[in-house]
Design brief:
Blueprint lengths: L8 E9 L6 H6 L5 E8 L6 H7 L3 E4 L5 H11 L4 E6 L2 E3 L1 H10 L9 E8 L13 E9 L22 E9 L5 H18 L5 H22 L6 H30 L1
Parallel strand pairs: 1-2, 1-4, 2-3, 6-8
Antiparallel strand pairs: 4-7, 5-8, 6-7
Length: 261
């Protein structure tokens, strides 16, 4: 099968969303027209996300929020193709990544069941990733018959078993945070979930980590994840993320104290 620009791939793109009217538009626009369908699983938006997505050509389905992994598994089930592409409501495909995925389907279904690509962070207020931007690297293009999202309330990763994913060269751009205030709120909520779901750890080990968690995390984010190249925004991002690594341990210890009472 030869795929031309006006022919849709046998591929379903699914997106989970809630109150994403200010961000989901470019995400849908980056895939609609060349994938077979766009499925938006909405968990109760009150800002018009559903109507916006539908007007852009997506099929919108309501499903109450069960957690990250279960919601994405539900999204997988709603797709009419076995080959699926997962995007979050703040992740926009680059032209290079689109061309690369189209090429995979040039002669039929891709030969490998799992493909991953980089999600390059865009700072709040910026329009594109900075030079040498840090990234996360996830499996987001895959055949659901061979692997699915883990059934985890916090972590949303595709389980590939013993099969090694193929790395794609193209990137998606990750507009993860509307503002630095939004970043603080998101990390605070996420650390609450982690404190409830992380496997039991040694109280002594956590206590010993407490003084070192922030400085070591800052070195990780600022130096090794290259936020040093991001100016004041990079410094702020590294500081905030490092603090919440520290706060996560504080919350875990608090949860242990509460369980002992």
């Amino acid at each position: 099968m030869s795929v031309t620009n006006d022919r849709r791939l046998p591929l379903s793109c699914f997106i989970i969303a809630v109150n994403e009217a200010d961000r989901i538009g470019p995400v849908i626009e980056s895939v609609v027209g060349w994938v077979d369908e766009v499925v938006v699983v909405d968990s109760g938006s009150t800002d018009g996300t559903q109507d916006l997505a539908a007007n852009l050509g997506a099929r919108v389905i309501h499903h109450d929020w069960p957690g990250f992994g279960p919601q994405k598994r539900y999204g997988e089930d709603q797709c009419r193709n076995d080959w699926v592409l997962n995007l979050d409501a703040d992740e926009v495909m680059s032209e290079a990544l689109i061309r690369e995925i189209k090429a995979l389907f040039e002669d039929g279904p891709p030969p490998h069941p799992f493909y991953r690509f980089r999600l390059r962070l865009v700072y709040p207020g910026d329009t594109r990733p900075r030079l040498w931007a840090d990234y996360h690297n996830y499996v987001r293009l895959y055949d659901r018959r061979f692997g699915r999202f883990a059934d985890s309330l916090v972590h949303d990763t595709v389980q590939t078993g013993d099969v090694k994913p193929i790395q794609l060269r193209g990137d998606a751009w990750h507009y993860s945070y509307r503002s630095f205030g939004f970043l603080v709120e998101k990390l605070n909520s996420y650390s609450d979930l982690q404190a409830k779901s992380i496997k039991k750890q040694s109280r002594l080990a956590l206590t010993l980590r407490l003084p070192f968690e922030f400085p070591l995390a800052f070195v990780k984010y600022y130096i090794f994840r290259r936020h040093i190249t991001g100016g004041r925004k990079g410094f702020a991002f590294a500081m905030i993320n490092s603090f919440f690594r520290f706060l996560r341990i504080v919350k875990l210890l608090d949860a242990m104290d509460a369980a002992r009472k």
